[in-house]
Design brief:
By secondary structure, this protein is mostly helical. It has one domain: ACP-like (Non-ribosomal Peptide Synthetase Peptidyl Carrier Protein, Chain A, Orthogonal Bundle). Helices cover 62% and strands 0% of the residues. It has four helices and no strands. Helix 1 crosses helix 3 and helix 1 crosses helix 4. The mean pLDDT is 94.
């Protein structure tokens, strides 16, 4: 599962134009990293495309940190694999 953490971190880094090692797992997207709603949608779309899963847009509000985003993605990956 560590691989998924790294892959999602890389996806987010690409969207927000930062280096992956600049992203603290607990940094708040909006407040600390300057992520706006369009970037958040891009992150959601990138995760859905990479893992071939669908995450409802209502979950977007819960994409507040890298850790939270990874947790949500894993939840939907687990449902897909079930």
């Amino acid at each position: 599962m560590q691989e998924i953490d790294t892959e999602i971190k890389d996806l987010i880094a690409k969207v927000i134009e930062k280096e992956p090692d600049e992203i603290d797992p607990n940094a708040r997207f909006a407040e600390d990293l300057g992520v706006d709603s369009m970037m958040a949608l891009e992150i959601l779309a990138a995760i859905e495309k990479k893992y071939k899963i669908t995450i409802p847009e209502e979950k977007l509000m819960q994409f507040t940190t890298l850790n939270e985003t990874v947790k949500i993605a894993k939840e939907f990956l687990d449902k897909k694999d079930a």
